[in-house]
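TODO from last week: model Protein kinase.
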Amino acid sequence: MRSRRGRGSTGTALLVDDLTEDREGVVLKLARDLPAGKRLDVEADVLRSLDHPRVVRLLEGPLDVDGRRALLLTDAGKTTLADRLQNEGRATIEQLENYGRDLLEAVQYLESQGVFHRDVKPANLGIAPDRGTRKPRLTLFDLSLATEPVENLTSGTPGYLDPFLGTGRRRQYDRAAELYAVAVTLFEMAHGELPSWRHGEDAPASADDRVVIVPTSFDEAVAEQLTEFFGRALSPVVADRFANAAELGTAWTAIFDRLEQPASGTDVDEAARDAQAARATLATPLSAAGLSARALSGLTREDVGTVGELITLKGTRVNSIPGLGEQYRREIQRRVRQWREALLPQTAPVTTATTDPIEERQGIEVIAGSLVPRPSPANATEIAVVTALLGLDDADGLWPSVAEVADRTGVSRADASDALANATRRWRQRGRTTPVQEILAAAVRDAGGVLGLPDAVAALTFRLGSALEGRARERVAAGLVRAVVETDARGAEPTFVTRRLLDDGGRTRGVLVALGEDADEPGDAGERALDLAVALGDAADALVAERELIPADQALAELRAVVRATGDDVRLTDDQLLRSAVAAASRAALSSRSEVYPADLAPESAAVLALRNAHVVALTKERLRSRVTGRFPTVTNLPDGPALDEIVAKAAPGLEWDGEQYSQRELSRRSTTDSTVTGTATVNLLSLDRLLQDSLRRRSALTLAVHPRSHGDAVAYLARTYGVAVVDVAALVVDALRQGAKDNDADWLAVARLDAQPAGTGAFGILQGLAREYVPRLWAERLRAPQPVLLVDAAPLARYGLTDLLAPVFDLAEDRPAARWLLLPRRGHQPIPTLDGHPAPMGPDGWVDLPPNLDLSDTTEMPA
């Protein structure tokens, strides 16, 4: 089996290779149950007598495949006409002519064989390239209703069934009903939607009710002809309709034949078109610029209306217009070259491409804004609905329902729903959400198949960037995720399935996004993944209901048991399993240490847990909050003043507020084994030189400390005097992150902005993961240097959880190529040197305090 082709009322179609008969790319149609198997037997009987290139052919069958009835058929195509119309909108003139001709050829053939299809519709018309010309052609398939009793008037698909069948003398299915379905299919191709009725909704209100046919619904070049054609083909009076498929086909062909004939009015000959093109200016409407009707029809797929707008369109955009034949593609390209040569020298320079906010990485808010249509008198409702859905209206509310959007914008629910449908259709036709969809799909795959909305927001922000901050950025990014999944859901083969999570009051508390059904995995894989995530979330909630903090190994044991209980072969990493669980949970959250804890953990408990077993000798309020929030991201409400003092006293006995920070006053500075160098003694340059020269000779590692205001002088002094190579660790980290952003095709500014996020959040976790992947590579490269190295500005190692990189530097068992020195800032009131507020790693000799008044010009104490 290669892939799944689709699923219908009788069963599932699979694209397979028949190895026994050496047939590649054929379709195996499997019956879904016993009654469907009997219908396949009937379909096989019908197909066995048919042979036409526009009708699917029976290759073999009925077959028995693992107890299920099956047919082996030719492949009608991966895409159906229904898919094409849904993704691209109404057909171009060229598609109308060619696809309509193919459909009518198939129906005329069936009519000549005395066969009614009984279910003609776009979903039963496959599109595949012709083997000779490679042009797309239609093939009619699914004849499972062909032998339905003619007395059965309800067999088929609503909307395509003749609503007047069963009235008057029409008590049996007839040719008029078959041609009605064909005419509705042609109407849907030309208009983009099924017909509506003057007095009824989805069906005529009376026996003489008529379909609403408005010329402006069709392509301008053929609007009058199509209005006349459908007025007759869909008439409530059968006698007024076309008598047979051949007559219907002749009338259809005549519509397009007229376009080739020079005539007065809107159709002009080539010489007249050339004259119009020569007179064109940048402001000339394309309809008056000398383009043929078929070329104009193709350009309706692009958001251009004038010559000036067309000549700024990328050539690749013209080349990729669906439904535009090569002849008319060349016509457009020829006119574009002509107009650029004639018009651009007389105007200000213009760009050769419209700005694509996704390609230019202008940020999620710019991309979201580009999805809002240009204002016009007719689209105020759509603008309001789209603005609310995308979170651009500054209103609170997570993933609002259509009803909530309607209430917020003051329109009816029906109007809000229609506006959303129109917007997603436009986005899909123009590919506006496709690049964002690819980013989201990759993030869901990386997460193991299910992603919570906060992580989806972080993924888009990471890749696309944003100038917004805080809640505004989250709201707009969530709106962009919503736009992607809403557009995707209306496609022929949706990529995603989503599930809205509700709290006890029925309000949305979260959203899960999963990948849809895998072509290689039968069944509703996406729904099963969501079901598993919800079950994992319930298990995580049960854990935090019993305990305050669940270590990762214990949580994983419980969650793995949930996975085993499903019986599915689910392969998730530990991190994917934990994140999937907390994404669906209502109370559980994930700490930076992969512990599961209650999302509403009390600040006092969080502080106690964050400071437990920690070697803390000094702590500012900012660092305390960072430590607590870094481990427990949901705890952001630490108090201030005496209330905070009480929490600290309980969490870390011995720490007292000294006016600037919490510190343990009774602790003295740690000293090295050389009391003449550190401790309370003042260090002179001569003593310092002996120590550093000894380190150079022994290739040892030292931690050096200096007051921040003397840091720059110390670096210059050590580099000049001892010839050490200075490695700026902060710059190294930035270089590594830049490389990571480049390798992941991410916007560097967006990556850099993630550093402002609190540690432990999903956004910061992305940055931390990038650092953990790329910094060690560059670190190892720099530390292999054969000369002595001085490491400076190393605080980012603590920020990103990479202090373990320093362990080998101070390991006595390491064979270093040369001395390695780490220079850290230390103020006088600090008991020990720190890295980003954390105690700094150091060797068994502790650290060396450099003189506070290091004078680079004074060398009187230095040896000659």
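Done. The mean pLDDT is 82.
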